[in-house]
Amino acid sequence: MPVSRRTLLRTGAAVAAGSVAATTPGAPAVAARADIGVSAYAFPLTAVRLLTGSPFAENQARTHAYISFLDIDRMLHMFRVNVGLSSAATPCGGWESPTTELRGHSTGHWLSALAQAYASTGDASFRTKGDAIVTVLAQCQARAGTAGFNTGYLSAFPESFIDRVEARQSVWAPYYTLHKIMAGLLDMHLLAGNAQALTVLTGMAAWSRFRNDRLTLTQRQNMLDTEFGGMNEVLTNLYQVTGDPNHLAAAQHFDHAEIFDPLAAGTDALNNYHANTQVPKAIGAIREYHATGTTRYRTIASNFWTIVTRDHTYVIGGNSNGEYFKAPRRIASELSDTTAECCNSYNMLKLTRQLFFTDPTRVDYLDYYERTLYNHILASQNPSSTHGFQCYYVPLRAGGIKTYSNDYNSFVCCHGTGMESNTKYGESIYFHNGGNTLYVNLFIPSVLTWPGRGITVRQDTTYPSAASTRFTITGSGQIDLRIRIPSWATGAQVAVNGAAQTVAAGAFAVLNRTWTSGDVVDVSLPMAVRRESTPDSATTQAVLVGPVVLAGAYGTTNLSALPTLNPATIAPTTTPLEYTTGSVRLLPFYRMHGQRYTVYWTVGSTPPLPAFVAHYLFNETGGTTAADATGNGRTATLAGGALFSGGTVDLNGGYVSLPSGILAGATAFSITTWVRIDTLTTWSRIFDFGTGTSAYLFLTPRSSAGTARFAITTSGSGAEQRIDAPAALPTGAWTHVAVTSTGTLGVLYVNGVEVARNTALTNRPANTTATWIGRSQYAGDPYLDGAVDGFRVYSRALTATEVTTIHGEGR
Ligand SMILES: [Zn+2]
């Protein structure tokens, strides 16, 4: 949470490496070391103010009330008891009770929240409260020796917990708890200018180095099997503040090889690992990259992000079932009351913004950020509690209902990260590049006062209730203004003082000009209702409109199975973002509280396929997710190195994976695509939809007979029905190919012209599990060397005229 903000502050009075800037009370601190490998930066929280009225501002206000309400003596009771100081306070309950091994963690979250609330509002009462907590923590740390602990130790539990984790004896997660306290101290230093917090923190860091230097590498690595939060992150962040190499060394004690090694190799080994134990390790890795420039750390972090968001993430942006990662692409099969722990998304958003700083061309990072912010973070606070109580899990089974924390008898982990999430909504709305480039990432009503520029940007909107937002500039100067156009926002429009600009979905709208006071930018982001299927079940789907996941409202009615949704019945109401399907209301998931709901639906157990099943434009600029332009939600995934390249997919040794069963049940079909073959190899595949080597349909640019071939079978290669072209497909040029099938007729077209047909082609598509572009069901066949574009799938046979027309439209 903290350090990315600090990277911005360095532009002020940079201090020499190895020294720590003197701080004045309440003034943000200055960092010693600039981040390496970043080309975008956050603005400090002090530069962004939320405007009232948005759900974010309302959530923030509730959390502000709570962190002001919490009693210092109760929260610090066990810290005092732990070092023999008297305390008459009533002990807390829940995970802060005197016998809970995680006690003390909430105080760390609370410190971070107070520091963020102060920076976000300027309200000194938050800082005053944080300062008072730091004072007590310093008193407790000073008594470490008296209490029989090593110098620098500070916790609400005895240091023997560390002995136990080192000895691999049963203990919950002592370093996890210390990390929260350390992060809270660092935030009080960086955001509230508390110098004592830095002193206490450096004492803890020295203690950590001392404890872990005594261990062998093997002992340390074994110890890291126990959850340790973001120890590598906070110590790296401290290193960036102090420049003291001891702090980097202390951070690297927490580099967990068992997790890092497969990630560095791009391998998904996450199955059956505790999910939120791993996310902070990846955040630590990207911070270690930014501190050292060692690219292996960046690879670990970016591979983790890709693997988790692509293969382990629910539609709301969250991950984990029962707190654990499951096998890749198991989503529909992992719906329960304990899905989507909130801490995981708090941490994934921290990771996402660090990765964006590393590569600010990646709109997909911000698309994920927005999806998770609205549908998990915003959705997990109870709006009817004045203290902003929080979900722990967010149930995603049909009939699930959200449950919440309370004032003093819960203190679950997600209650703590909830305090943090709801006090930093200003942190990712706007970024800059250190020069004149201003990124607008999120559409949250707010005012940015650009430090040192004399320019303010005011954003007025009721988005997502309204599909638009407006920016008003005050001040003047050249700004390369870049506004994120979400990947779903087909038809988006941007106007500067009424003059339309050229924009595209899934990219930044670039408005590079000299601005003057009163200039206005209007952004329109049309929101169509669309569906997304799960990777493991094409018929298990969620409904979205714009960035918002819609859930079915079921009141007190529990459900034993996913309800069936007929998409044709979805109708808007007079309330923005609210729809009906039959007798069921669809509400934004972030407004779904106090009643049972479903997020996922069965869309036709034998789904009536739409005539136009899927259409992949491949216009994305990054990431591995290819949108389905039909709106049917049949999202495809790039795998094995395939990448978006200039509005196409360069297969690059990899392939594209389409949803399972994409043509299951079809009695007729057409598949058309543009393809550019760079190297012609026998038996490579333009596409191959199958269940293995017994049932499949494919198009190869050259069979062993030397010509292009379409084949379809339901019982192995000996039973293939084929359409053999007169020649192989050409190389080095974009070529349009189409296969159509209806009744007993199959036709193969090249560049809009029929080249071959089979009048006895009766096989029909299977319920495929391996549905690929560029890859064969046969493991020995080569992958296609080339690129594809404009891939279309229909559940009917296109006419020859239609094929000619599609070809004529070009790529
Ligand atoms: Zn949690």
UniProtKB/TrEMBL annotation:
Gene3D superfamilies: 2.60.120.200. PROSITE patterns: TAT. Keywords: Disulfide bond, Signal. Residues 667-801 form the LamG-like jellyroll fold domain. It comes from the Bacteria. GO terms for biological process: carbohydrate metabolic process. SMART domains: LamGL. Residues 1-21 form the signal peptide. SUPFAM superfamilies: Concanavalin A-like lectins/glucanases (SSF49899), Six-hairpin glycosidases (SSF48208). The keyword Membrane does not apply. Pfam families: Beta-AFase-like_GH127_cat (PF07944), Glyco_hydro127M (PF20736), Laminin_G_3 (PF13385). PANTHER family: PROLINE-TRNA LIGASE (DUF1680). This is LamG-like jellyroll fold domain-containing protein.
